[in-house]
């Protein structure tokens, strides 16, 4: 009888981790999106010298990073593997600046603004070294 219970618990543990992986992927993508949004908001400041808008940008960045932290907490609760990169919006600054410059030129739907194509700065430097 005890062997059946132990076997059932092992299957339940394996099934939990299998079910958690899609959840972990979604949460990790959500964290990454908030980091990219923060970089985009930061890049807006390069072409704007308004103090009130700078304050609003700082609030928007803080809100995005707070959402990233919430998703990181949910990842921990789901026992997701820990992130291997720091939460740093500056990793996406090159792409964020390219997007901001395209928007300043009037290119509203520029491919440079597709956050799905943005790469971390360390990803770009590693491909240059190869």
Q: Can you give keywords for this protein?
A:
about 130 residues; mainly alpha; about 70% helix; about 0% strand; globular
Summarize the structure.
The protein has 130 residues and is mainly α. It has helices at residues 2-44, 51-77, 93-104, 121-129.
Question: Would you give an account of this structure?
Answer:
This protein is 70% helix and 0% strand. It has four helices and no strands. It has helices at residues 2-44, 51-77, 93-104, 121-129. Helix 1 runs antiparallel to helix 2.
Global outline: globular
What's the overall average pLDDT, rounded?
84
> What percent of residues adopt helix (DSSP H or I)?
over 70%
Sheet-strand content, in percent, reads under 5%
Query: Low-confidence parts, pLDDT < 50 over ≥5 residues?
Result: 9-15
Number of strands: 0
Give the H and E element order. Answer: HHHH
Specify the number of helices. Answer: 4
Radius of gyration in whole Å, from Cα?
20 Å
> In terms of structural class, how would the helical and strand content be classed?
mainly alpha
Distance between the termini: 58 Å
Largest sheet: none
């Amino acid at each position: 009888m005890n062997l059946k219970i132990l076997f059932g618990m092992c299957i339940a543990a394996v099934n939990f981790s299998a079910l958690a992986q899609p959840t972990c992927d979604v949460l990790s993508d959500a964290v990454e999106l908030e980091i990219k949004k923060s970089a985009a908001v930061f890049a807006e400041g390069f072409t704007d010298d308004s103090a009130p808008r700078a304050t609003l940008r700082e609030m928007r960045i803080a809100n995005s990073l707070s959402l990233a932290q919430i998703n990181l907490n949910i990842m921990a609760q789901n026992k997701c593997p820990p992130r291997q990169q720091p939460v740093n919006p500056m990793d996406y600054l090159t792409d964020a600046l390219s997007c901001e410059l395209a928007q300043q030129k009037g290119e509203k739907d520029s491919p440079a603004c597709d956050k799905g194509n943005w790469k971390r700065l360390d990803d770009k430097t590693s491909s240059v070294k190869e």
